[in-house]
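Supplementary Text 2. Reproducibility record for the structural model of the 246-residue chain.

All settings were left at their defaults, and a single model was retained for analysis rather than an ensemble. We include the record here because the model underlies the residue-level annotations in Supplementary Table 4.
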Amino acid sequence: MNVALELAHITKRFDATEILHGVDLSIRQGERHALIGPNGAGKSTLFDLISGRVKATSGVIKLKGVDVTGVPAHRLGRVGLARSFQSTSLFTGLTVFDNIRCAVLGSRSALFRDRWVRSASIDRDVECVLDSTGLSTRRDELAASLSYAEQRALDLGIALSTGADVLLLDEPTAGMNRAEAARALALIRETTQSKTLLIVEHDMEAVFALADRISVLVQGRIIATGTPADIAADPAVRSAYLGETP
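Retained model, structure tokens:
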């Protein structure tokens, strides 16, 4: 199976403190892969490295076989990787339609030369994203007026609008009640078919419902990778979360 995202011997230091210690991780093309671990394990730092927000101290990151180590976030978006954030990063003073349109424009403007064709094509793409995320009826509302769950759906829509086939989702159900989380998971499942997902999520019910495989990061190291059933039965994982002796 083809590998969509690969990390080899990734380390990250902030001054004298090493946060990540030689992380190896391989995400298969089309896979839904969850990254879990206790608070302070280094999950956010690892996400920031993959998405180009910070640079690794050492190691290699490959996207679909291409070395993208140190490539900044705005360039990664052009080569097929997009990220949604735990805190939504919306233009709250713009409408839902215009938020999506900005994302489409930013990723595809270089593909078109004729202004009319560009505008018509982009608007069609926006409408498709609005339909897929269930936000069509809210298209003319300001993003600030949306409910929290709707804002997360819009955040997902912005990531989808880039056309990226590798998506990083940072706690997509954070702050939601059970009903909202279930709807969010169904939306992610439906809108990301055939795409590759790497998800950081604290809600274990959501993780086990969505992920094909799970990797567990503890104190900057991957201690286990496997199916949800494998991870649930792993003594080292139970020790990390529950304090059990493996």
